[in-house]
């Protein structure tokens, strides 16, 4: 059942249940009411603004009734019911996290040992079965990447992959780009050279948050794809040397691209990005697109470069990588704010043709959340 107590003259209440003691401010409760006058019944959007809530709001009465908490507010003289389970899920009276670099629930960092359990699904299955799509998208959200097999071997098939969860993000490269050897290429991705693990387009702000690479031809020797968990690399750096981790989160790097006429892209962001409360939210790492670093004070520059070098060494460590070969009709998708991807060098004999495009993670996470809401028994 539980108990509820009004405290501080009604400024907040304390709710005691089997899950412990939680406090909720009057203004927070009123702002998060779900009655029909506060929220639109169809979409749940607020019908009032904060200015419509009295700055003198207080809790006049509160009681538990079954699975609900009924709260009466003054000076409105309005009583609103709150679901106790909803309050438990959204409770904010908890210890503050003090360690920087924590990751959100549902994120699982990994290294090369994930090779035995690469998140993979069949294109036909995820296209025709909502449970299969939900399970695959859940793995992509957890690990930051996923592979699809059994897709059509036709140009533009990558768009069907994006349609599973969202929309193509068009850039100066177009709706998609070709990855195969070219003469006088505008980008090193179009050569047979091996590429260091990197995140794409760090010179954009915001970066494309999802990338899809789809294989159409693959008879050249080599060219295997690799992925590295940038979050795992950043956390390994933090374990080895907290000061080096801190310097890469404290100062901005600069990135730029000017390989085409009329295009000059620039960004200024940390290589390891944290939210204000210390959550690890993004990694940007791409030495090919790195500009001169000018935002680090002289006294910290040597430390910054030592940290930058070590992060690169960790990323290059074979123990961190998952490697796989893409055959025609196969593709992989990466969270471009977290997972770095790379390619081993390939020979000039035979052919290697991939098509790539960008999309955005909000669409993927929205699709996943809608599927999980529809089927709450979603697989872990």
From TrEMBL:
Instruction: Return the SUPFAM superfamilies for the record.
Output: Clavaminate synthase-like (SSF51197)
Please provide the record's keywords in A-Z order.
Answer: Dioxygenase, Iron, Metal-binding, Oxidoreductase
Which coenzymes or cofactors are required?
Fe(2+)
Q: Which Gene3D superfamilies match?
A: 3.30.2020.30, Clavaminate synthase-like (3.60.130.10)
Domain TauD/TfdA-like: start-end pairs? 131-358
| Record's signal peptide | none
GO molecular-function terms, A-Z:
dioxygenase activity
Q: Which family does it belong to?
A: Belongs to the gamma-BBH/TMLD family.
Protein name listed in UniProt = TauD/TfdA family dioxygenase
* Organism of this sequence: Albidovulum litorale
